Amino acid sequence: MNLHIIALFKFNENYLMEAVELFQNLVKETRKEEGCLQYDLIEDKDNKGTFFLIELWESVDHHNRHNGQDHLLDFRKDASKMMESTVEVYKGFKIY
């Protein structure tokens, strides 16, 4: 069963350029992963510094493997210094 994920990030406005660079690398590398069906970065149109990752994974196992990838671990380490708050993550399965 496909796993849908929305992850919400709020970055300090002083770090927007750096955040976008980190996201670009993360998205590029993640899209190469087996089981990644969608991995898109969205910037909130009304809230500067707020980003969403819209993810679709072939299975929970594929997403679990993603969580151990170096590019994601590096992103988490580097991004944590620039964020205003912790990441909010919502995971679920399509109902209809």
TrEMBL record:
Residues 3-93 form the ABM domain. GO terms for molecular function: monooxygenase activity. InterPro entries: ABM_dom, AI-2_Isomerase_LsrG, Dimeric_a/b-barrel. Keywords: Monooxygenase, Oxidoreductase. It comes from the Bacteria. Signal peptide: none annotated. SUPFAM superfamilies: Dimeric alpha+beta barrel. This is Antibiotic biosynthesis monooxygenase. It comes from Chryseobacterium artocarpi.
